[in-house]
Amino acid sequence: MSATSTAESDPDWEYYPLRLPPGVSRLSAATRLSIHAEFAGWELSRVLLYSDGSRKVWLRRKRTRTAAGLPEPLPLP
User: Which of 29-33, 40-44, 66-70 has the lowest mean pLDDT?
Assistant: First the structure.
């Protein structure tokens, strides 16, 4: 399952792929992901660890519902 197919098949979630280079420690990666979670509402969806030490991370969050279906406000006279 790829992130693209997941994003296309799940309209309730939006996904954000993130690549962490090999030199990033686990603590540093956890701190970075915590900042994304705290200030932007992302949560960890999936992590791939590559043999060179780099990581590919998919973050996800619920799509926000806009005022879809509500009528347009009437213009002021």
Answer: 66-70
Instruction: Round to whole Å and give the CA distance between 27 and 43.
Output: 17
Could you tell me the two tokens for 33?
């992901």
> So what's the pLDDT on residue 67?
46
> In which element (H, E) is residue 9 found?
helix 3-9
Check: CB of residue 44 under 8 Å from CB of residue 33. yes
Could you identify the residue written with the tokens 């990581």? 55
**pLDDT tens per residue across span 54-71:** 999 999 999 876 545 555
